[in-house]
């Protein structure tokens, strides 16, 4: 496995994205948004637990 610099990998990924269209990028954005919303909801709602001591 050859080591390629990050800039070369990024340029290759951008070139491949032009051939594929926006479908893959849109899927990644939706998944990241969903995970971010779930994490934010968990983070905010965890403070509302009641301790019955």
Automatic annotation (TrEMBL):
Going by the UniProt record, its keywords in alphabetical order are:
Membrane, Transmembrane, Transmembrane helix
Superkingdom classification of source: Bacteria
Give TM segment ranges.
26-45
What is the protein's name according to its record? Answer: Uncharacterized protein
Q: Which organism is it from?
A: Streptomyces cylindrosporus
